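Open question from group meeting: does this chain pack into something compact, or does most of it stay loose? Before anyone orders reagents, we agreed to write out a predicted structure and look at it together. Recording both the input and the output here so the notebook holds the full record.
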Amino acid sequence: MKKSILLLLPLFFAACEHETITTGFNYNITLDGENTYYAGEPVRFNIEGDVDNIIFYSGEFGSEYQYRDRYTLPTEEVASAVLDLEIQHRWGNANPALEIYISNSFEGLLGSSGLLDRETVRYMYEAGMPGWEKVEFEDQLKQDLWVPLSLDLKEKGYLDRFSIAFHWNPPKGGVDEDGKIIPTRFDTYWLRGDLSIAFSDENFAGTTMSLNSMIDVTVMMSDELDPYYVNEGNGSIRTNTSGQDLNFAGGQLYNPESPNDSHIKHYDCEGWVFTAPQSINKVENDKAVVIKNMQNDLDYYEYTWTEPGTYEVVFVGTTKDYLESDQSVKKFTINILDTPVI
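Structure tokens returned:
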């Protein structure tokens, strides 16, 4: 005996923004009359008419049409968001030479015009870093001592938008009144860390991002240097050092009287690192599967649900000519039952 279950008829859906239904769009999808609707058994959809492309939403988690444009969750659904850093004042002077700031309003830098980015950063710092919160941390000049710093972004309310900035500002070098090089040590800092995010809904996988992967723009402030001077060894900001996510590579000021190729030849190592502004509550939008394009014909499509449940199934068909593109959305509500025990 054929197994069946009541189905809602296909619904033609017209949204005011993305979807249109046109009378000249000769395309239809129907459920095959021979279908059974149990988990583990394929359901067939018959396809008729002229359509160039079809994508399919199964209605399962991660493939729901209603969430195709959802890229963030409500902030209350973020269970935790913690940035754990480790900082080592590796070498240099006894005084701190690194500042850390966080912001939930920073719009980001250009990353393509160094002089403009430098002026933006200079203006921002001289204005007192509006929109930024300075983060205090224990700064110790001890090699091999990693100082932990943990920032609870959920507690601080930094979920809709978050950026972190590091300001490296060791003492400047120079010459004395007799024209001799002033012996100068530019401070070295090593940093590493991860941002860990978890959601209340366990269906959404948590995310862990390294500090290195979050870096967006580095800016050197000295007019002697290219603003984007990076990964050039001592005297530069390094993002490519094994074992560290970020390396402010200090060293000794170059002295012509006792030259050393590894010593720094410019007098100012001031620089900034900014991470890209990002939403902590961001998630992947739901995706469809392409089941037809202009290169293949398709008379039917079969899909198998492995879990019982009620699914809103959506097919989006499009056709295109040199003047315009039309779209038609077809919906089915399908109930999948648990496989009966025989």
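Observations to bring back to the group:
The first strand starts at residue 11 and ends at 13.
Residues 181 and 258 are 11 Å apart (CA to CA).
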